[in-house]
Amino acid sequence: MTETLPPPAALPPLPPPPQLPPLPPLPMTESGPRAFAAVHALHAAVEEAAAAAGLEPLLLELVRLRCSQLNGCAYCVGLHTASAREAGERDERLAELVVWRESGLFTPRERAALALAEAVTRLTDRAEGVRARRAALGVLSESETAFVAWAATVVNTYNRIAVTSRPVAAESL
């Protein structure tokens, strides 16, 4: 004889999550003006050395824009998109930068710089970083390769400051 069990009792609904207040901006630049000035000085030093190494300003803007896209920094994406346009970049290439690997619009030099910039930004796959560095050294000089990495490093610093210091809406928590 099979015993039938009564249906399980309905579970009570879960309580709503607690309402957390929004987080105001984190005053990183205001709290550390000397530190932020040092980031600006590093940026200026990298710009000067990258130009001396022969890197084109537009290539550096593409590197900065791609890193900013990966980091989700809306402010920096807007800034570097505008700077790239001012330097003569076409809207078609700007639109395809997020899919540069599949796009036929980028030169081998740009592709190598973008791959290296992505590897510097992500840092999670060391093999990717080694492959990107080897590829970059195939089309860029050693000095150019180093300053693409420096440019990515500096913009990643700016991205982290901007993303970390912006306010956070309550519903994002």
UniProtKB/TrEMBL annotation:
Residues 1-27 have a biased composition (Pro residues). It comes from the Bacteria. Signal peptide: none annotated. Residues 45-119 form the Carboxymuconolactone decarboxylase-like domain. Residues 1-29 are annotated as: Disordered. It holds the Pfam family CMD. This is Carboxymuconolactone decarboxylase family protein.
